[in-house]
Every structure is written in C-alpha cells, then in structure tokens.
Amino acid sequence: MANLLALIQNETLKVWKKKRFAVVVLILxxxxxxxxxxxxxxxxxxxxxFHADWRSELQSRITDNTNALSSDRIPExxxxxxxxxxxxxxxxxxxxxxxxxxxxxxFTRRFMDNAxxxxxxxxxxxxxxxxxxxxxxSGTIKMLLTRPVRRWRILFAKLAALTLYVSLxxxxxxxxxxxxxxxxxxxxxxxxxxxxxxxVQGADVDTSGVHAVTQGVYLLMQAGLIWFSAMVVAIIALxxxxxxxxxxxxxxxxxxxxxxxxxxSNMASSWQSAKYLFNVNLELSSYLRGTPxxxxxxxxxxxxxxxxxxxxxxxxxxxxxxxxxxxxN
Amino acid sequence: xxxxxxxxxxxxxxxxxxxxxxxGFGWALKDTWFPNKGLELxxxxxxxxxxxxxxxxxxxxxxxxxxGDSLTKGTGDSTGEGYVTRVIDQLSKQLDKxxxxxxxxxxxxxxxxxxxxxLDEVGYKNAIGKADIILMTIGGNDLFQIAQNGGSLAEGxxxxxxxxxxxLPEAEPRLKAVFDKLRELNPTxxxxxxxxxxxxxxxxxxxxxxxxxxxxxDYAFSLAKADGNATVVPTxxxxxxxxxxxxxxxxxxxxxxxxxxxxxxxxxxxx
Lengths: 329, 271
Fold this sequence. Notes:
By secondary structure, chain A is mostly helical. Chain A has 13 helices and four strands.
C-alpha cells in the first residue's frame, strides 16, 4: 500500500512538473474573460431591447421558437427540439421564475453546459493523452518497468493521478468561471431556483416530475455529471496512450473522436445505433437541464451505462496490453 | 524537501476536489431517480408592470404590444421590420417621446381561435397588461381556411368565394372573443385592429372575395365601435390596383413598401 501511494505521488508530481496543469489554468484564464465579455455584450443588447424586463424577453424567445415551427425548411428533429424548449420556457414563465437571472452562478452553469462536449475533454486530454506514450517516446518507460514493481501497479498509479487531476481541473474550471464572471455579473445567485426533472419524450415534455433546486445544488450536480464524462474521456485516452506510441498521434486520435461525437450528436438522430458510441453520450448535463437528447430513447441511465461499459472495456484493454506488451525500440 | 511539501498540498486539494465531484455526481443520480419534493418557489421580487391608462401626453414613455398573425410578424418584408417596428419609430418621432415595443407575439399562420387560447398564457397577459397601444392583425387565416374548406394554400386547395360567404359568420364570434379578452386583460389600452385586404384581387374569379373581406372588416368595425377605445385601420384599398407593387413574392404578404403604407395609416390613426 505504501508502495502504491509512493507510485501515485511519483506520477502526480511528474504531471505537475510537466506544467500541464499550469497550461490548463492559463487557457482558462484567457478564455473565460473572452466568454464573459461576449456574454456581457449579449446581456446589454437584450437589456436595450427589452428594458431589463425578463418576462418579455422570455415570451419573445417562446414566440420566436413557435414561429420557427411553422417553417417547412426546418428538419423534423429540430422542430421537436424547439417544441420541447418552448414547453420548458413556458413552464418557467408560468411559475414566474427567470431562467437566466444575471449573476456569476448562472454564467458558470451556462459555461459548463457548453464546455462539456469539447472544452472539458480537451483540457482532460492535455494531461491524459501522453501519460504512457510520453514515457515511451522519451525512453523513461524502461527505467520505470525495470524497477521491482508490478506493471499493473504502475498503470494503476497513473490512473489514480489522472483521476485526481481530472477532479482538480473540473473544480478549477468552475471556480475560475465563478470568480472571473463575478467581477462583471456579481457574486450572487447561489439560492436562485432552477427547475430540474423535465422528461422529454419526442416533442412532448412531461412536467409531472419537475421540481426546483437552488442554483448552487444544480451547479454541484452538473459538475458531478460532467466530471463523470470527463473521467470516461480520460480513461479512454489512457488506453489510446497505451496503444499508440506517439503522443501527437494519441492526442489527435482522441480529439478526432471527441469532435466526431459532437458532429454526430447534431446529425445522427436518424441513425439510431449511434447512441451506443461513447462520444455521443458525453453531454450528461443536458439530462439535468432537460433538453432533448441527440437520439431518441437516450436517458441519463442509458448514457451512464454506455459510458460505464466503454470505460470498463478501455480499462481492461489498457491493463492487459500494458502488462503483457514487450517494450522494444 | 520541496517535492514532499508540494505532494502534501496537491494530494489533499485534489482529493477534496474528487470528493466534491463524487458528491455532485451522486446527488445528481439521486435527484434524477429519487427526487425530493423540491424547494418552495419564492415570490418574484418584482411584479409585472401594469399599464396605468390616462392621457398619453402626460406619460414619459409609451408601450406597444403586437399580436396576431404573419402580417404583424412582418412576413414578406425583406427588411424584417414589418409594420410594427415602423409604427413605433414614426410614433416615437412624432410624439417626441420614447415608444417601446413590449413584445411582438405574432405567430405565422395564427387563427383567431388560436389567439384566444394563447391570451390565457402568462406571457401574453404580462405583455398586454403593460401596453398602452395594442397592434393586431388576425382573421386572415380564418377566412382563408374557410374559403378553402379547411385546407391550406400549400395543400393546393382552391379558394371558393361562395363557401366564404356562406361560412363567414362562423368566424365572427372568434374575433369577438379576441376583443373581449383583450379588454379584460387591459381596460385602458388603445386597440388598433389592422383590417384585411384581398390578396387575390388580380384574379377575376376572386374579385368577389373583396366583398366578404369588407363584411369582415365591417364586423371588426362594429366590435371596435362597441368597445369605444379601439379602431379599425383599413388596408384593402392600399393593394387593390397595385398588388404586384406592394405584395411580396409569395403574392400574399405585403413587401417592405406595403408595410410602410400600412404603418403610415396606423400612425395617422393614432394621432
């Protein structure tokens, strides 16, 4: 056990000294202010149009989406999506709750929703994708494997370090988002109500299970779900890193897979079996929000199961290959 | 040793992060599958504003709500403004005070009976309650569907003036319901009903439709008279001799010029 802990310490410090986490923080520090500024512009624009009357802004969104439904050029699945959205917005309006109260917590919530499909995986890959392959390209893998330690322990230590870093990245992202956007939007909003529990079936939204939670709780649940999908990405990236020699190749493979997932989620609604791919299931936070899933029939339980199966399979492959493979070069 | 100090800091902070994330994840699962009752909804801190009525000249600013069908939406206008934005701009200039649009809640293809149902929605109540002026076009789709025996233009049904004249009285109660409901929601606003026109005047067999459109406009006029603070702005004469010039390429909705002419009339009526 002490031996394993020492290995984890070793791996964690190695990643730290490669300054990967510093890069992630730097990216966040540059990108978040850009999004905050863009969001501020949008907020000012709509304040001009609606005189800070969120009710008429909400009604306007409902009307716009209703109008789009009558267009013949819009594909059927987009119409379903809009119909569901209209019912959801109407629910907020009926209960006199502003879904977009202007504060730092709302911004963070929105940012995380948008970050789940590309931005979070990218940050995870910055750490995960060269965990094993870099040892191989720099030759240090021989040093590592010639020590009197079982191979699976080495990989397990890497996995543990990866888990810790994924958690740290998620936490840092939320924290920085809140701190930076709070400068502009104010550090309030933890207690604002948000509705969860919308059940989307095709174009219909079942509101019988809808209940309100505070935005703080919502943010915590959302971060937890995104953390899970980030962990799955990390585990699969670890597998690719075991299988592929070069760091660049492993990074590109993973990135291409993730991007393919976002493209597929946008167009694959008629290709039913695409829902068994892990990369269209990453947007776990959308179930919390209650937006219709990319392919009909997907639920939180379904996505968790698919992601879980992929992760377990990736772990089996990684550990089998890593413990058996010959190291040549 | 520097690295052992770093390790202690890193291990503890990342471990705490991990616990937070697992808590959040577990909470999300619990909330999805075994939801609690949910928290009590707070009363909104600010209530929707309500129009005060009274003399316009005493007011600092005026609020306009627009509702109805595609004509109010501005369909066919290449500038995207429709008559509503034009009315607001002109009125603001002429009255020399800000005139704001509360909301344009028009929906393409909407019929009067659908509008009556929508007037029960909170968003409509808020916006109409706040308005000093209500702009509205409605009924065109009702008449159109009656003349086609329920079909739509896209389905290729032929228009039948006879059917329209026979069944026109069916649609009239719907318009009355709209007027009644609006007045119920806002006792003080001035209601402008923009009259219908015959978009098929250039087809010889469809000229007779104009007569039924006039009947409809007459009926709207009687409702407006009964109301006292409402008026009908006629538009049928604007298009009859120059349909091509003022209608858009769909041969049904006005184009930018057509909307400008409608808005000129509305502004005149409002002064």
